[in-house]
Amino acid sequence: MVVPIAFSIALSLCSPSAAEVIASKSYSYFDIRGKTADELDRELSRRGPTASGSSARHPGATKIRFGGEATYIQNNGRCRVGNVKVTVHTQIILPRWSSRKGASKELSMIWDALSSDIKRHEERHAEIARDQARAMERAIRALPQQRSCEAMQELVSNESARGIEEHDRQQARFDRVEAVNFQKRMLRLLNNRINGRAGAK
């Protein structure tokens, strides 16, 4: 979920320039139950969160909300960006296996590998959003002066829209790469856990 940045306009004659990125993150969980791999898979498909604009369920999700504000400095017939603040809040939604007690060791090992990969995947989505917020702040701060603050504000709005589009492209690219490598990644995780257990004996 992505909300475009809304930049307010405030005129100043001599305020110093400043920039800031404020990133916050929260977690929420949905419970699933099951005693077999098939049951857990069905639960994820039935209870998992939906992505924005789609009814398909996913094993995890990251909701992303951008915001921000900017002030503008007018001096000698020119206007430039003064203060810039870009905010990004990410909410990571993860599955929680509520009926794990009594499950087999093999199923627990599979779940641990899967849930670890889901969390890593969603954390990377949040990281991409934070990185893009920093890139947007730098790009807005570097915009050239304009003849009026109305023109400056329009330039900032266009740059923020471009930044959101680039963010969406990066997120989609990451998902494509992850989908291709999922099976190999899960096999590697399971092998690492099997070898770790063997080494501990």
UniProtKB/TrEMBL annotation:
Organism: Rhizobium laguerreae
Keywords, sorted A to Z: Hydrolase, Protease, Signal
Record protein name field: Secreted Zn-dependent protease
Span list, region Disordered: 42-62
Alphabetical list of InterPro entries matching this protein: DUF922
Position of the signal peptide: 1-19
Organism domain of life: Bacteria
GO process annotations (BP): proteolysis
A Pfam family annotated for this UniProt entry: DUF922
The UniProt record lists the keyword RNA-binding: no
GO MF term list: peptidase activity
